[in-house]
């Protein structure tokens, strides 16, 4: 018991110390976990042989991660990804395998060894890439979605890879190899590779003919889907009736563990089974409950996995041939990156999306450890080669956070370069000028144009302008705060200017300039928060719309309606709140001082409290008046 507590304390202390430091330095949590593992393993020697066994347990974090990702994907979204799964992902695995295979053969190795090495390095790190994409908020970008498609394809391809590797074994007859493949279940192969010795435990497909394995696999997968669709809701309602919060956590863990074990019994990847379960439950009303219950376990297990990777690096071999190991790791990254870059361009990825896709997937992955161990066990790869391969995989994973740092630097440079591009020549003028064509500006532009009025659209985001052009809406790229661009768009004769820029400072500059040039121009501005509202009022805006204000009012009205207030009364209260808030903002704007923090502005705070009391009195009076009217009518 004391040994377990000692090891747990070491791992947790290393994570608590290293990860926040790495995050504060902008290096990301993954690099912090890897550094923590290196510190307690090769450098200080605080952990030993138990690291390898602990890593197999920690790999369950990948299973939980794919389950959570599945919860975010509806089946329709997964179907929409089919072309990238089969095309982009399939081509990446195939081309990377062939190119690395040719390179290894050029070094004098047999084709079977070269093919095995190519398969190993064709895979990328699902754990590192998805964790980093989620942390940086890049999962929903086009490059992030493409990277996810490739990772999912790679995870699926592990299954046929494990079936193929025994066929490449040296010094075995074809009859022996085929007999072994037919009678060894895939789950045993995976567990044997991960534990170092084969296991002949439970299996639902052992000894079955090929058609039998197929039927059982389809039946189990279909059962998982039907259970997720029809059985989970009654079970969740039953657990909810118990009113015990910990039972939701237990049920969430049961779903992930149970489905993973069932997939294991039929020879499929537990991670893929968990992903399938997540997709099935994506439309469930209990989805957010599952996410909140699984998230802490996923984070801790993934962190533990990265620590064990760092602790397992063989520094003796690395220091014995540092240039060779680093050179081979960098060569793998360069070769994979070249394949990814070419495929990304073929599949119409451009700019930052292309570089995110290329750099995020250029490393080897955790499944490489499984394939290397299994290849050594099956006598596919020479024993003296396996240690080197394990070290190359680990080093490439260790370099991955640095690739994301390089992507951040490159992305910023590309954004700066985009700002320096030559502005478009504005060859149209209209009475309505809309500056900024993001989510806010798009809706304004659609409403106005659909009502029969012409607009001129300006934006400094080239991507936004290009997207609008694809839908037949012409816009002009350039800095809309430049006087010559505004005048070219017709500022002299314009009737309305809509300032819908994302940058608050740029919006204030735009409004101030337009007001100086055209005192009679009606200016409608988008504001981020109340302080931004005050700045825009001082700059000269006429109508100011806070980003979330109208949506929040509507949500508040729904709350009132569901608390028993009639629809008419709720609308009246919403309308009173709206007009009072507009009056309050204008009055408080005269007391707001940009040089004094709001919480230290005593006059502002005192008047804000008075206005809030006025609002409460007014709304309560309205409710009482409505109640009296209803009684009289009755």
Explain how this protein is built.
This protein starts with a helix and ends with a helix. The radius of gyration is 30 Å and the shape is globular. The longest helix has 37 residues, at 383-419. Strands 3-2-1-4-5-6 form a 6-stranded parallel beta sheet, sandwiched between helices. The chain has 634 residues and is mainly alpha-helical. Helix 6 packs across helix 9. Helix content is 72%, strand content 4%. The chain has helices at 2-24, 29-43, 50-58, 60-71, 75-80, 82-106, 111-121, 126-135, 142-164, 174-183, 186-195, 210-242, 245-265, 270-280, 287-311, 315-320, 322-346, 351-360, 366-377, 383-419, 439-450, 462-470, 483-488, 504-517, 530-539, 549-562, 567-589, 602-633, and strands at residues 432-435, 455-459, 476-477, 496-499, 522-527, 543-546.
How much of the polypeptide forms β-strand, as a percent range? under 5%
Main sheet overview: 6 strands, parallel
- Alpha-carbon Rg, integer: 30 Å
Tally of alpha and pi helices: 28
Distance linking N and C termini: 74 Å
| Nearest-integer average pLDDT | 80
Defining traits:
single chain; 634 residues; mainly alpha; 28 helices; 6 strands; 4% strand; globular
Short structural description:
The protein has 634 residues and is mainly alpha-helical. It contains 28 helices and six strands.
Secondary structure elements and their pairing?
Elements: H1 2-24, H2 29-43, H3 50-58, H4 60-71, H5 75-80, H6 82-106, H7 111-121, H8 126-135, H9 142-164, H10 174-183, H11 186-195, H12 210-242, H13 245-265, H14 270-280, H15 287-311, H16 315-320, H17 322-346, H18 351-360, H19 366-377, H20 383-419, E1 432-435, H21 439-450, E2 455-459, H22 462-470, E3 476-477, H23 483-488, E4 496-499, H24 504-517, E5 522-527, H25 530-539, E6 543-546, H26 549-562, H27 567-589, H28 602-633
Parallel strand pairs: 1-2, 1-4, 2-3, 4-5, 5-6
């Amino acid at each position: 018991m004391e040994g377990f507590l000692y090891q747990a304390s070491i791992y947790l202390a290393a994570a608590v110390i290293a990860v926040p430091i790495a995050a504060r330095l902008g290096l990301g949590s993954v690099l912090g976990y890897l550094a923590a593992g290196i510190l307690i393993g090769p450098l200080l020697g605080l952990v030993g042989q138990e690291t390898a066994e602990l890593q197999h347990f920690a790999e369950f974090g990948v299973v939980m991660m794919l389950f959570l990702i599945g919860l975010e994907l509806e089946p329709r979204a997964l179907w929409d990804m089919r072309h990238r799964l089969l095309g982009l992902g399939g081509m990446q695995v195939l081309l990377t395998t062939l190119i690395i295979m040719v390179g290894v053969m050029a070094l004098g190795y047999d084709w079977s060894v070269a093919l095995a090495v190519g398969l190993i390095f064709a895979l990328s790190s699902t754990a590192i890439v998805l964790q980093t994409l989620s942390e940086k908020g890049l999962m929903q970008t086009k490059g992030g979605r493409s990277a996810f498609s490739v990772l999912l394809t790679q995870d699926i391809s592990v299954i046929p890879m494990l079936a193929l590797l025994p066929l490449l074994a040296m010094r075995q007859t074809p009859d022996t190899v085929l007999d072994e493949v037919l009678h060894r279940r895939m789950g045993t192969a995976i567990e044997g590779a991960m534990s170092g010795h084969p296991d002949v435990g439970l299996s639902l497909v052992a000894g079955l003919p090929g058609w039998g394995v197929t039927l059982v696999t389809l039946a189990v997968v279909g059962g998982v889907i039907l259970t997720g669709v029809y059985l989970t809701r009654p079970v969740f309602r039953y657990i909810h009736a118990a009113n015990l919060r910990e039972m939701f956590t237990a049920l969430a863990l049961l779903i992930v563990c149970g489905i993973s074990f069932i997939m294991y019994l039929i020879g499929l990847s537990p991670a893929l089974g968990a992903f399938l379960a997540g997709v099935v439950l994506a439309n469930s009303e209990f989805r957010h409950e599952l996410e909140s219950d699984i998230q802490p376990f996923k984070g801790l297990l993934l962190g533990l996995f990265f620590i064990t990777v760092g602790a397992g690096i063989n520094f003796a071999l690395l220091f014995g041939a540092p240039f060779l190991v680093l050179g081979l790791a960098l060569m793998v990254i360069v070769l994979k990156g070249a394949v990814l870059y070419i495929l990304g361009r073929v599949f119409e990825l451009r700019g930052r999306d292309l570089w995110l896709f290329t750099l995020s997937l250029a490393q080897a992955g955790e499944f490489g450890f499984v394939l290397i161990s299994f290849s050594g066990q099956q006598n596919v790869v020479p024993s003296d080669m396996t240690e080197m391969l394990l070290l190359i995989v680990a080093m490439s994973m260790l370099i991955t956070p640095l690739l994301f740092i390089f992507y951040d630097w490159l992305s910023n440079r590309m954004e700066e370069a985009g700002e320096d591009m030559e502005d478009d020549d504005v060859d149209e003028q209209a009475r309505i000028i809309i500056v900024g064509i993001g989510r806010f500006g798009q809706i304004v532009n659609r409403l106005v144009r659909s009502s029969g009025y012409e607009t001129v659209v300006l934006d400094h985001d080239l991507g936004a302008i290009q997207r609008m052009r694809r839908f037949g809406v012409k816009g002009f790229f350039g800095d809309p705060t430049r006087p010559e661009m505004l005048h070219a768009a017709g500022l002299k004769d314009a009737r309305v200017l809509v300032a819908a820029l994302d940058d608050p400072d740029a919006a204030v500059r735009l409004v101030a300039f337009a007001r100086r040039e055209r005192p009679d121009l009606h200016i409608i501005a988008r504001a981020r928060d109340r302080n931004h509202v005050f700045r825009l009022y001082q700059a000269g805006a006429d109508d100011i719309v806070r980003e979330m204000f109208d949506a929040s009012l509507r949500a508040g009205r729904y709350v009132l309606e569901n608390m028993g207030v009639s629809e008419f009364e709720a609308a009246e209260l919403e309308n009173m709140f709206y007009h009072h808030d507009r009056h309050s903002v204008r009055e408080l704007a005269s007391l707001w001082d940009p040089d004094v923090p709001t919480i230290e502005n005593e006059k502002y705070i005192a008047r804000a409290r008075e206005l809030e009391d006025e609002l409460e009195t007014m709304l309560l009076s309205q409710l009482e008046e409505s109640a009296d009217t209803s009684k009289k009518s009755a």
